[in-house]
Automatic annotation (TrEMBL):
This is Amino acid decarboxylase. It comes from Desulfosporosinus fructosivorans. It comes from the Bacteria. Its cofactor is pyridoxal 5'-phosphate. The keyword Lyase applies.
Length: 474
């Protein structure tokens, strides 16, 4: 076995308790009856074709549409990324070529801007001061350019499980009497069915809705669904876009797992048991940690909170989040989804069990007790996360597409002021771009990048040697 296989085997043997994607959590019960080697087939007679389905794939997609409340559903085998990209390629080529986009959108939305040539009109998220994260969107403070926009693309819910008032956005479209499509990245809300969770974007009336089914449901990683309703978006263009972007050799394992995920999604009893344990977790450790909860609804642009995303802030404990993660991993085998300097996100999926939640609760109780016993006294200023700040939006000189294909050169970061940036740079988490390719470098952005500390950065090729790509002008 090679290094990659050995690495996977070593990790699996550690027996970590998963609070991260994928949603199946490695449990075989979701794949009983699926012969992984035997089902790894190509488009043979009787097995239908993904890009022109008329048989078993068409029937599976039809059943999924019925389950999730869509008029039509497309199975995706290139992840949620291809769903966002296809949404943008499907848009009519309006004269303005503009689309309303959240600045906090997933990086696949930024790549969709490059592929489509659309110009973004950004709306800014609301930062929650207790978590220093973009958890809300206050529509009252946004100026949406409905009249020139080819579409409005929003994220619902966020990575952290919070949702803005999507119904207000849809009502505003109706009030204005316009036909602008509303596209929703519901990657982290594939499980929004029944009464235990917030309403789905489809139920609220969105036109295109993306589900990354592997994140919280039981399908295999890299599988997703794109749901459609209404006639504001051309389904012919959508099919053509998906055929253009997706593999011509689709994995039948991914397709079969998507069909199965829809069936398991209706097993609400699984979620009910988990909800009870999460409520107990809040009760037992809520005094030691700041935990995002229903109490946050109505504040900082937050309209809904998904209880299955357990977001805790460790400032009250006085311990940096990375040290807390280390304690939980080593002492309790708990593996979270992500963390920064002060927050940890534990993501539940349909494969979690009540025992998993009790293990997490026990680990957090032990962590709090340990921190108090050794007397951690680190101040908020020492522990806190200052890697995300709200900066004025820079001027967009070129479309992301034009900037991507332009001639570029790499220069010392300190010499980039006033130049057109040739790469998109985001601290992760939370993944909100500080600067997007095609934008002009400002004093504020340059100052933040020059003082950037260690951490994970997306898209910054020259972080180690403090260089940046700029567009050749003239």
């Amino acid at each position: 076995m090679g290094d990659l296989g050995e690495g996977l085997s070593r990790y699996q043997k550690k027996g970590f308790c998963s609070f991260h994607t994928p949603g199946h959590k490695g449990r075989q019960e979701f794949f009983n009856g699926i012969d992984f080697l035997g089902y790894d087939l190509t488009e043979l007679p009787g097995l239908d074709m993904l890009h022109s389905p008329q048989g078993i794939i068409a029937e599976a997609q039809k059943r999924s549409a019925e389950i999730f409340g869509a008029e039509e559903t497309f199975f995706l085998i290139n992840g949620g990324t291809v769903g966002n990209q296809a949404m943008f390629l499907t848009l009519e080529n309006t004269a303005a070529k503009r689309v309303v986009v959240e600045r906090s959108s997933h990086r696949s939305v930024m790549s969709a801007l490059v592929l489509s040539g659309m110009m973004p009109d950004y709306v800014m998220p609301t930062i929650h001061p207790d978590f220093n994260l973009p958890l809300g969107l206050d529509l009252e403070k946004q100026q949406i350019s409905w009249q020139v926009a080819a579409a409005c693309h929003v994220t619902y819910p966020t990575y952290y499980g919070t949702g803005f008032e999507l119904s207000q956005l849809l009502d505003e479209r109706t009030r204005l009497g316009i036909n602008t499509p509303i596209l929703v990245d519901q990657a982290h809300g594939s499980h929004y069915l029944g009464l235990l969770f917030p309403p789905s974007a489809l139920k609220l009336g969105a036109d295109l809705v993306l589900h990354s089914s592997h994140k919280t449901l039981s399908s295999l990683t890299q599988s997703a669904m794109l749901h459609v309703q209404g006639n504001r978006v051309s389904r012919t263009r959508l099919r053509q876009s998906l055929e253009l972007l997706q593999s011509s050799s689709p994995s039948y394992l991914l397709l079969a797992s998507l069909e199965r995920a829809g069936e398991f999604a209706q097993d609400f009893g699984r979620w009910e048991c988990l909800q009870e344990e999460v409520a107990e977790l809040h009760r037992k450790v809520g005094m030691s940690f700041r935990i995002l909860s229903e109490k946050d609804v109505g504040t900082y642009g937050i309209h809904t909170v998904d209880w299955s995303k357990v977001l805790i802030n460790t400032l009250k404990l006085g311990v940096p989040a990375p040290r807390c993660v280390e304690y939980l991993r080593e002492g309790f085998g708990i593996e979270p989804e992500l963390w920064d300097e002060e927050n940890i996100l534990f993501m539940l999926g349909i494969g979690n069990t009540p025992e998993d939640i009790r293990r997490l609760t026990k680990g957090l109780e032990s962590l709090a007790s340990f921190a108090h016993s050794v007397g951690f006294t680190e101040s908020k200023g020492q522990v806190g996360n200052d890697r995300f700040k709200t900066l004025p939006l820079p001027h967009l000189i070129l479309s992301p597409r034009d900037a991507f294909f332009a001639h570029k050169r790499q220069v010392p970061l300190k010499e980039s002021l006033g130049h057109i940036v040739g790469e998109t740079i985001s601290p992760y988490p939370p993944g909100i771009p500080i600067v997007v390719m095609g934008e002009q470098m400002t004093h504020e952005i340059l100052g933040m990048l020059l003082t950037a500390g260690e951490g994970r950065w997306q898209g910054w090729d020259g972080f180690e040697n403090q260089t940046i790509w700029i567009v050749e002008e003239g």
